[in-house]
Amino acid sequence: MMLGRVIGEVWATKRAGAFGHRKAMLVATLAREGDRLFPTGEVVVALDDIGAQQGNVVTVSWGSGARAVFAPPDNRHVLVDAAISRIVDAITLDESGRVLNLQHEEG
Amino acid sequence: MFLGRVVGTVWSTVKWKGLEGVKFLVVRPYHLADLIPEVSCPPGFSSEDGVVVADILGAGVGEDVIIAYGHSARVALEPHLKDGQLPSRPVDAAVVAIVDRYEASAQPGFDAKVKPGEKKTRPATSATSSRKKK
Predict the structure, then answer these.
(1) Residue A63 located in a structural domain
(2) Closest of B13, B14, B44 to residue B31, by C-alpha
(3) N or C: fewer beta carbons within 10 Å in chain B?
(4) CB-CB neighbors (< 8 A) of B112 in chain A
(5) Residue A56 maps to which CATH number?
(6) Contact assignment for B73 to A81 by CB distance below 8 Å
(7) A106 falls within a domain
(8) From the CA of A95, how many Å to the nearest CA of chain B?
């Protein structure tokens, strides 16, 4: 899984059938250094079923893990290889239990 | 999956039998600095790489597309799979959607200044795009 921030959305009317009518979000991947998260420069498209908003920090699941987000367990026909699997509220930074709270950054 | 722009086409005369009739395109992925110019990327990040993808939707050069990898790409090429039937073509990247429009913007709290990178010299891409009507 990958940590990223939702930066936008993509709309497409012409798509492969099994793609369905889910929202496709643009997610910028994040890396952590010390107390801060910074974008690595990579952007992925992840389908969303849980209502992630622009600016949310999310985790993206890949491959069959992404298909499991939408249609467990018999999902070989589902055309998804990246799905938003959770909206992150906070991240533990180190063993001392310090927490990076992401909630205040929203809205 | 990723968002990219079709920059070229690949032709081949000798190919695996099942790939006849499948078009192959060269797609350049969009990176963060293309979508949101005010965000600078870490140095050493190449944004010139192209990916060869299969296409049955009919995307053309200059169009923006969404690419899926792996099993999803094979499913995209075979829309009439029956239950329990598995795709068989040797493909691992395919166009799954032709993009009409995308929007991207940095939110407050998006830490853009932590890792300043080198200035890119490639042409700026607008943060909002519209597909040309044919």
Answers:
(1) yes
(2) B44
(3) C
(4) 39
(5) 2.40.50.220
(6) yes
(7) no
(8) 23
Report the gap between the CA of B72 and the closest CA in chain A (Å). Answer: 5
Total of domains in chain A? 1
A7 lies in a domain? Answer: yes
Closest-CA residue of B relative to A79 is B72
Query: Do A44 and B36 make contact, defined as CB atoms within 8 angstroms?
Result: no
Indicate the residue of B1, B75, B81 with minimum beta-carbon distance to A82: B1
pLDDT (tens digit, 9 = 90+) per residue, B36-84?
Answer: 877 766 655 555 678 999 998 999 999 999 999 988 898 888 877 777 7
The answer as to whether A36 is a domain residue is yes
Q: What is the domain extent for residue A70?
A: 2-101
DSSP string for residues in B4-39: EEEEEEE--SS--GGGTT-EEEEEEEPBHHHHSTTS
For residue B116, the model assigns a pLDDT of: 36
Please say whether the dihedral angle defined by the alpha carbons of residues A8, A86, A52 and B72, taken in this order, is positive or negative. positive
CB contact under 8 A, A41 and B117: yes
Summarize pLDDT for B106-119 with one digit per residue, the tens.
Answer: 765 555 333 333 33
